[in-house]
Amino acid sequence: MVGLGQVKAKEDASKMIESTEENKRLTAEKVVDVQNAKAELEAKLDKIGNLVHDSVPISDDEANNAVVRTWGERRTEEGLKNHVELVELLGIANLSKGTNVAGGRGYYLVGAGALLNQALISFGLAFLSKRNYTPLQTPFFMRKDIMAKCAQLSQFDEELYKTLIDSFNFHQVTGEGDDKYLIATSEQPLCAYHMGDRFHPSELPIRYAGYSTCFRKEAGSHGRDTLGIFRVHQFEKVEQFCMTSPNGDESWEMHEEMIKNSEDFYKELNIPYQVVSIVSGALNDAAAKKYDLEGWFPASKTYRELVSCSNCTDFQSRNLEIRYGQTKAWIIHSPPPPPKKKKKTLFYTILAFFF
């Protein structure tokens, strides 16, 4: 016979099992709630821009960009040919055939145009190599989740081309399910190159001369600069990308070094320019400060942007979890730096090749 005590024990056990199952269900729900709340928090944090440096001009109007310095003699005589006329006169590109094949803003570089393009790329890489930059040729496309850590969401619609694939079949073959995005600048894959890495103080600063073909939809510039090889969908770039420690003014000193490199580069090409500090309202979320180097276009008697140089402090390194610190093995060799500091990153374009 089963005693009353045994029956009581079975009833208590059943209640405990039911309670345990209910707790598991509630825990699973709370885990999902926490994950959703974390994703919502991160989405909101992603909309918060970097802290603007005190020296940045405060304005929403780029007419108030501060001119830092100018160099070179500006030609202003009448009758000078513009870049559109020069392309046709010299026969260095075929835009009509490019448009027929690739659509609007398409082009073929022909003869001396193709050679000039390669010469400028080679000159840019050699120029930076002599200044202790390591050349790095990047992938032309990136995974969506990685691109999201390097680019603002607004760029996805206005700038980035998306590759369309059969996600299921592609995943079966490669293990990857995400669509890819073509890069708009080599800064994006350069930034992700050290994703998840940790740097010892002795390894910094790091200087890269990135080279890539870049692709931009230019959706926000419809109807503007449609003539010649200007504001095109495909182009080559050589970029400076530097990483410094977060200590003192190291990143700001590097920022000045990088804009000086660009000025020296355009002096070599004998292109008159001005350097301007961009107003706060025109900075993207990542930049704490940005210089533009604007070249003089004599036919139109105006300056146009050739170079953009930004100090992003630790904005990008936070997203990509790039850390400045020491592993246990390093502690033997030197005292640890301040805990949990993230390294600062700067990205920089020295050569955006447009005629």
UniProtKB/TrEMBL annotation:
InterPro entries: aa-tRNA-synt_IIb (IPR002314), aa-tRNA-synth_II (IPR006195), aa-tRNA-synth_II/BPL/LPL (IPR045864), Ser-tRNA-ligase_type_1 (IPR002317), SerRS_core (IPR033729). Its EC number is 6.1.1.11. The keyword ATP-binding applies. Keywords: Aminoacyl-tRNA synthetase, ATP-binding, Ligase, Membrane, Nucleotide-binding, Transmembrane, Transmembrane helix. L-serine binds at residues 185, 216, 239. The chain crosses the membrane at residues 107-128. GO terms for molecular function: ATP binding; serine-tRNA ligase activity. ATP binds at residues 216-218, 232-235, 305-308. GO terms for biological process: seryl-tRNA aminoacylation. Residues 82-324 form the Aminoacyl-transfer RNA synthetases class-II family profile domain. This is serine--tRNA ligase. It comes from Acorus calamus (Sweet flag).
